[in-house]
Description:
Blueprint: H1 2-19, H2 26-49, H3 59-83, H4 90-100, H5 104-153, H6 159-210, H7 216-249, H8 258-267, H9 270-283, H10 291-341, H11 345-348, E1 357-361, H12 366-369, H13 377-392, E2 399-403, E3 411-416, E4 419-425, E5 431-434, E6 446-449, E7 456-460, H14 465-470, E8 474-476, H15 478-497, H16 500-521, H17 528-540, H18 548-558, H19 565-575, H20 577-584, E9 589-595, H21 597-605, E10 607-610, E11 613-616, H22 620-634, E12 645-648, H23 650-660, E13 668-671, E14 680-687
Parallel strand pairs: 1-2, 9-12, 9-14, 12-13
Antiparallel strand pairs: 1-3, 3-4, 5-7, 5-8, 6-7, 10-11
Main location: membrane
Membrane topology: Multi-pass membrane protein
GO biological process, one term: bacterial-type flagellum assembly
Amino acid sequence: MKNLLKNSVVVFVIIIVLLLIIPLPPFFMDVMIIINITLSMIILLISMNIREPLEFSIFPSLLLITTLLRLGLNVSSTRNILSHQGASGQVIKAFGDFVLQGNIVVGFIIFIIIVLMNFLVITKGTERVSEVAARFTLDAMPGKQMAIDADLSSGLINEQEAKTRRYKIQKEADFYGAMDGATKFVKGDAIMSLIIAAVNFIGGAVIGMVQATMPFSEVMTVYSIATVGDGLVSQIPSLLIATATGMIVTRAVSEGSLNEDVSAQFLAQPKAIMLTGAVMVVLMLVPGMPKIQLAVMAVVLVASGFHLERKVKQSAVREEMLEAAHAVEEASQAPSDEESYYRDVNNVYSLINVEPIEMEFGYSLIPLIDESSGGKMINRIVIFRRQYAQDMGFVIPSVRLRDSSSLNTNQYVIKIRGEEVTKGEILVDYYLALEPPTLSGEVDGIETVEPAYGIPSKWIRPENKEMAEIYGYTVIDPLSVMLTHLSETIKQHAYEMLGRQEVMQLLENVKKHSAELVDELIPSQFTYGNLQKILNNLLKEGVPIKDMETILDTIVDSIPVTRDIDVITENIRIALKRTITRMFCDGGQMKVLTLDADLEKNIISSMAKGEQGVYLALSPDVMQSVIGQMGEHIKKFSDLNQKPVVLTSQVVRLYFYRLIEQFYPNVYVLSFNEIANNIQIQAVGNITV
């Protein structure tokens, strides 16, 4: 039985094809016509009761099958009409007699009106809607895919739900594309019905008068009944299928079945119903209008509208009372419910979870983040995460975005591991204009400081944007200001987000092509914790960890000599010299600050070893002098379009970096061994004792 059901569609299609070849007796012709009408009615009712188009995803295939069925029946009925002097079953004769009712001219006019209505109104409109729906669905696919990626990246959905949503989007695109093509079958079927009707009538008339020598009046009666009846039994199912097609492709914004939506949306507008009743009363004043019918309709509409409005008000009052009662109940039960919830120790752990990266923002900034309001913040974060992974070899965790009533409306706060590290303020309706070194003109605005780099700036109105650019300002939109601040903060604190779990994921990625290297090192010779410390050291100074194979190879080579984490890190930096050079080299040149030889000797002689390792014991005067000189020399790099770099010997590099990092976190300290041999070094300043 199960196999029979599986193959029933195949058998049915084969029967349809045979209808085009094998003559069908009138009795079986009646059976097939009834099946055709029944199937069309079922399809129409299904299309009215589905909630979304994908619930009836086989519709394009059914459309082709039903169209082929009608064409097969048309061929069989035409064969019978022309071969048996207009006799092709009781259904066709009954439809023809019912429509003609003894008047051939009126009957034909009604038949032509039905055919043209199907062709020009239903079919043509359905074809256009299907075409537009298919195009809009395909155009919207990239945006929907990006929205899913953003939700996945921000933690709103899991991987399985994202996979389900992507599959649904693909199915929608395939469905509407198929519907766009399938509607052409409906259009062709309507045209074919007109041609077959003309063939039945003209061909039947010629055969009746020439071959059967029937009188002209009898020919007209017999073949007009057969033509109209055959056309109607074909056009009625075609009309039902075309209507179902239109309903399917127009269900894009529905939330329930057609019956539910119509009932809910009509009954939700009692005032419109009462106003329509009032219009009916006005129409009674027009001379010659049927007053009884209009009066009955007006009374029904006004009474129905009044009854519905009273129900709507009662329902609103009831909902308010229920909400109030529910709120009171929640307020009374909240303490006990919360107390019982936290009796379970496992539930208490949910209170101590800390987000790696978190961003809170005020109410006015919601339009920049909320996708439903056109915000693009999430999409931009996704793009930044991908680019950072490609550059640095580390995938930053999801950024938790949430609004906060404790902040000013234009303010935002960036937190790392649950603690605030920086904050800023954005004027949504303004642009931020960064002041250039030399101004050619002033523009009106609100004085401020760019939050990521501390550049003096102004918030300017949109109408002043072009003038500010002419004067040399760099103009940035509010979203880019906030995203730049977030991205720079993440870069500075990326090393804090690299934990054991992330290290294990990086190693799993390396195992895909260098499993022997990982197995040789971890965990037999080196622990996950020590590897994490090394990677943290590299990220902290902005060195990419993308080339994990080189990093692991260097660790393997260094272990026989030393297990000091700092020494191994310096060896890795030397191994990554090409990567480090590329980051700071511009056109084969690198502009740097250098240390005086006496200063380096002073630093080396002041190194002392304690419980926490080697540290510098410089005198306060020397430290103050070095920090002061650094501040003066760093200003030179603002005009060089290059990050500030200090070049030292390998022995001094690490300790000099630790000396200045708290004062100048954006200054990079490199050693001569970390610079490629083909690079020309140009000193723009020298730091002395």
